[in-house]
Design brief:
Layout lengths: L3 H13 L2 H8 L3 H15 L4 E4 L2 E4 L1 H27 L5 E7 L2 H17 L3 E7 L2 H9 L5 E4 L8 E16 L3 H5 L1 E2 L8 E4 L5 H12 L8 E5 L3 H9 L5 E4 L4 H5 L3 E6 L4 E10 L6 H11 L1 H11 L2
Helix pairs in contact: 1-2, 1-3, 1-4, 2-3, 5-12
């Protein structure tokens, strides 16, 4: 009979494509992982992995087993979580796929406050692109998604999470910093540091400014960077100005490393969304976490984190 622990090890090894990485994920030794995989292969009389040095890849039999193994591991976890819920205990793992910078800064505080109430709930926040979040939701690899734009698939349901303000930041020695406020017509005069074209932040800024008759395509773009942290560092170093999420640069603003500049008559905001796969049943821990986010306590914490 197949043992559940062997399937858990198999799924981890398949996802990590490395026995050592799977061992770290499961808090086991590498030999223990290899032993479990060998036992499962002998039990099923098939080879599940091709060994290519340190890297491993699934064989055809392994690829066929993977979705079934995931289903068994998930079902076993849900049985345990359901029985705990019957006793008033919120327990289980919640995997969150996050594509937004503000989400990265808000989630840890929400999770920390939630776990003070339900310490047996465990979270994993994985940062990825918006497309990857949607794909992972549809593949049932993550339970909750955080997106800067609504999902494209009709099978992914989105809910408002919080409103994110995008602000203009400049180096402390920039002429705009001494004034603190500029007019929209001055925006093209600066050197700009922007996110890549596919980023939700870039798309939001472009759309809002277009409504005000401002074409971002005509700006002098000094750099395109893949994270708000890199943009903040470049602005701090004096390489240009940028629009970024306020919540993501709160620390830099408080420390005086960068300055927030007001643009007269312009306010840029976007909605951040929570997303879930409509075809996947929520566990008790997932439902309780969403209830906490929507509760007065959760909303108060979000307001403290996102407002100036």
């Amino acid at each position: 009979m197949i043992e559940l622990r062997e399937l858990r090890v198999f799924v981890a090894a398949a996802e990590e494509e490395n026995f050592s990485a799977a061992a770290r994920k499961l808090h086991l030794s590498q030999p223990a992982v290899s032993f479990q995989i060998q036992g499962l292969e002998q039990r099923l009389n098939v080879q599940l992995f091709q060994r290519n040095g340190r890297r491993i890849t699934l064989t055809e039999a392994g690829r066929e087993l993977l979705p079934l193994a995931r289903e068994m591991v998930t079902l076993a976890a849900r049985i345990e979580e359901t029985m705990c819920a019957e006793q008033g205990i919120v327990k289980g793992n919640v995997v969150i796929g996050c594509s937004t910078s503000p989400g990265k800064y808000v989630l840890p505080h929400l999770i920390g406050a939630f776990r003070q109430k339900y310490p047996e709930a465990h979270f994993s926040v994985q940062v990825m692109t918006r497309q990857e979040v949607e794909e992972q939701l549809l593949a049932k690899q993550v339970h909750i998604g955080v997106l800067g734009l609504p999902a494209k698939s009709k099978d992914v349901e989105c809910f408002p999470f919080f409103t994110d303000e995008l602000i203009l930041i400049a180096p402390v020695n920039h002429p705009w910093s001494a004034r603190g406020i500029i007019t929209p017509k001055e925006l093209p005069q600066a050197d700009w540091i922007l996110r890549e074209n596919s980023a939700a932040t870039r798309q939001t800024i472009t759309a809002v400014l277009k409504e005000h008759g401002i074409q971002v395509d005509t700006w002098r773009v000094a750099m395109e960077l893949g994270s708000v942290e890199a943009i903040e560092a470049a602005v701090e170093a004096g390489h240009g100005v940028s629009f970024v999420s306020r919540v993501a640069v709160q620390r830099g603003l408080k420390l005086g490393k960068i300055k927030a500049i007001r643009v007269k008559g312009l306010q840029v905001q976007r909605q951040i969304y929570l997303a879930r796969n409509k075809l996947r049943t929520c566990t008790c821990a997932q439902l309780k976490f969403r209830e906490f986010i929507e509760s007065p306590e959760g909303q108060k914490l979000i307001a403290q984190l996102t407002r100036p």
